[in-house]
Amino acid sequence: MKLLKKVFKRKTTWFVFLIVIAFIYLNNSSLLAQKRESQPFLLAHRGVAQTFTMKGIQNDTCTAERIYKPEHNFLENTIPSMDAAFKDGADMVELDVHITKDNQFAVFHDWTVDCRTNGKGVTRDYTMAELKKLDIGYGYTADGGKTYPFRGKGINLMPSLNEVMEHFPHQAFLIHVKSNDPKEGRQLAKYLSQFSKKRLKNITVYGGDEPIDSLKKEMPNLKVMSKATMKDCLIPYIATGWTGYVPKACENTELHIPEKIGPFLWGWPSRFLNRMDDVDTRTIIVGGNGSEFSTGFDSIQDLKRLPDGYSGGIWTNRIDKIGDYYKTNEE
């Protein structure tokens, strides 16, 4: 009798175990997910920009000194480059901002102006008018300094954030706060608060934990992202996502998921994307494992690494190439 009970108990345990495994599979398999019909959402990093080798890059590397041979005449973070990106098929353009000496927001990548321009010093020590006088194409070279193809062509090209917003009144932007100053988050919140709810639906802000936290306190309905918001969402999701539960911290935010991390998320890709869509969160896939600098999907060969039928967001440094690919496939 005892032996019979042991056998029965063991069979029951295995049966329950198999039921749980079946539930997890059925609840997270993308094969059984609701079909996603849309094309991927294309995020153009810095607009149409000059790209560069990522080998050995560090935080203080001057990337303008290591660009590839130019294939176009656009410079990053400028209105012409953003205009070209949208025409090439970008759904959203990422841009970088720094506060200026006269409390405007300059659209420029670097903490200092030394690398790209003919100026010296910290970007925030200049007024917006002074920054416009700099030649932002001055430091670009593809041959180790033998030639500088963009010198003299970048004067008055650095825009303010206000100029960008006025030039593109309806387009979507991902604004990158480059400092980790909480005051800058509050200043950006004050600036963005003048826009309508409809306009702000197309604006997302990301950056350091402190400025994003201070901005979010001022504008709780604005979509934001930082390392802290990513952790607040994904750590509990990894623990409970197998049930289909989406933590509240995942609502109304943006997630940048490295391609090598994606497969470890419950329901990746389609179930995960559907769950995030349901809580108004945008998912962008980026290249590598998250340790690289701004690695994206920049060629047709890169796109082949995407999961079959992937229709979430894609981070790209070459919207001029990737946009054409999706335009052709759409037709």
Automatic annotation (TrEMBL):
Quote the InterPro entries the UniProt record gives: GP_PDE_dom (IPR030395), PLC-like_Pdiesterase_TIM-brl (IPR017946)
Q: Does Methyltransferase appear among the keywords?
A: no
Q: Name one GO biological process term.
A: lipid metabolic process
Annotated EC:
3.1.4.46
Q: Name one GO molecular function term.
A: glycerophosphodiester phosphodiesterase activity
Provide an example Pfam family for this protein.
GDPD
Domain (GP-PDE): residue spans on this chain? 61-326
- PANTHER family recorded for this chain? GLYCEROPHOSPHORYL DIESTER PHOSPHODIESTERASE (PTHR43805), GP-PDE DOMAIN-CONTAINING PROTEIN (PTHR43805:SF1)
Give the protein's recorded name: Glycerophosphoryl diester phosphodiesterase
